[in-house]
């Protein structure tokens, strides 16, 4: 019910929430950043960029060290594979 009300308000006010993941490689580590944009009538109203984790390669495997509590690893892996290719 709460999600229905939220989506109804977002549709009426023409508000769009955009979430993107960015990767920055340095010193053998890949830093993962989450960017959140809130657009009202196609203009950016607010933006947040926060580091959410570090990807590193060790013993022929990739590891992810989260810096935030609510990290969706599946989405990060999907976006990281797009970034590497």
Task: Describe what you observe in this structure.
The structure is a single chain. With 85 residues, the protein is an alpha+beta fold. The chain has one domain (2-84). Helices cover 27% and strands 54% of the residues. It contains 2 helices and 4 strands, in the order αββββα. Strands 1-2-3-4 form a 4-stranded antiparallel beta sheet. Strand 1 and strand 2 form a beta hairpin. The chain is elongated and about 50 Å long. It starts with a helix and ends with a helix. The mean pLDDT is 88.
Q: How do the helices and strands line up, and which of them pair or pack?
A:
Layout lengths: L1 H11 L2 E12 L2 E12 L2 E16 L2 E6 L6 H12 L1
Antiparallel strand pairs: 1-2, 2-3, 3-4
